[in-house]
Amino acid sequence: MGLFARTQEDGHEQVVFFNDPAAGLKAIIAVHSTAAGPAIGGCRMWPYASEEEALEDVLRLSKGMTYKNISMGLAAGGAKAVIIGDPKKDKTPELMKAFGRCVERMGGIYYTGEDVGMTPDDMAAVRTVTRYVVGLRETSGDPSPVTAYGVFMGMRACLREAFGDESFEGRTVAVQGAGNVGYHLLKRLHGAGARLYVTDIDSERVERAVAETGATPVEPDAIYDLDCDIFAPCALGGIINEKTIDRLRCRIVAGSANNQLADETMGDALMERGILYAPDYVINGGGVINVYEELMPGGYDRERALAKVATIYDKIAGIFAAAKRWGVATNRAANRLAEERLAELTAKTV
């Protein structure tokens, strides 16, 4: 498939390649849609095996951001940026500033932020050369606790749908990944009375979770086989796949990780097995709501942001209702709702 055909396949508006040899920068910014407003999406730095792999990632991620932002009800479109390079070896202040100049040249249709391989200090360096940055320490701060709060609220909607009662008391939750979001989610679940299991490839993260929440540690591969009410993917994507799906012993899959399904058919497979799935880009939308609040008149307001994040409960419940109405898996219902809204917005801009 040719380059134009690939970028047009999912309706991307603009894909821009940036090259700054002096700074060592090779970056791609993909703007999927600005029908709802300026596009928001983080920047990821990763040692991609090829430029084609980097392009595929940025196209997939930018489309996902459109669906997420629309699903959260934001007046914002979706975009993403990737920088090709090893963040542990290739990152320099000059590289970050070079990327910031690329963002500035986009003229305000794209707001960037922190993603995999990037840090708050990196974003601060980017901010020195462009104002189109969100999620800085001095504005909305670390989005992880807010993202975790949204996942927690979405889990409550899942419990009510699956069991008729949204209480976590006595419920068992297996959390895969105890990083920034997973850690804060574990703390909330512990406070709500859930029985917890936790795994992570980083043993120090597991030790911290066990010490602070009383969670039972398990080996990374064993997390799929646990009898639990909720399996919460909070680390890698693609973990619901042909190798893992038959091992699940849960009633609900709900977590913060992006792209949890290896492909859309895994949502159908979950439905066939009687497992309720909370679409990832909806339940983990608290972070983007948080940074979007920086663009509101008057600036960032924490209480207003948290109030909006709490509505993820209603958004998840609405997807479950639509899935039953249409007789489809919840991931397909979420996509359809986002696509219908995007079509409405696009029609208004024509």
Overview in brief:
The protein is α/β, with parallel strands linked by helices and 350 residues long. It has helices at 3-9, 51-71, 93-105, 120-127, 144-163, 180-191, 203-213, 265-272, 280-283, 286-292, 302-310, 312-326, 330-349; strands at residues 14-20, 25-33, 39-40, 43-46, 77-84, 110-111, 172-176, 195-199, 216-217, 230-233, 252-253, 276-277. The radius of gyration is 20 Å and the shape is globular.
Model description:
With 350 residues, the protein is α/β, with parallel strands linked by helices. The chain folds into two domains: 3-62 and 76-127, Leucine Dehydrogenase, chain A, domain 1 (Rossmann fold, 3-Layer(aba) Sandwich); 144-285 and 313-339, NAD(P)-binding Rossmann-like Domain (Rossmann fold). Helix content is 44%, strand content 15%. It has helices at 3-9, 51-71, 93-105, 120-127, 144-163, 180-191, 203-213, 265-272, 280-283, 286-292, 302-310, 312-326, 330-349, and strands spanning 14-20, 25-33, 39-40, 43-46, 77-84, 110-111, 172-176, 195-199, 216-217, 230-233, 252-253, 276-277. The strands form two sheets. Strands 1, 2, 3, 4, 5 and 6 form a six-stranded mixed beta sheet that branches. Strand 8, helix 7 and strand 9 form a beta-alpha-beta unit. The longest helix is centred in the first third of the chain and has 21 residues, at 51-71.
CATH level 1 name of the largest domain: Alpha Beta
* Average pLDDT over all residues: 94
CATH architecture of the largest domain: 3-Layer(aba) Sandwich
Q: Helical percent range?
A: 40-55%
The description of the largest β-sheet is: 6 strands, mixed
What fraction strand? 5-15%
What is the number of beta strands? 12
**Rounded radius of gyration (Å):** 20 Å
Helices and strands, in N-to-C order? HEEEEHEHEHHEHEHEEEHEHHHHH
Q: What is the name of the CATH topology of the largest domain?
A: Rossmann fold
The CATH homology group name of the largest domain = NAD(P)-binding Rossmann-like Domain
Give the oligomer, counting copies of the same chain as homo and different chains as hetero.
single chain
**N-C termini distance:** 28 Å
The helix/strand class is: alpha/beta
Outline type: globular
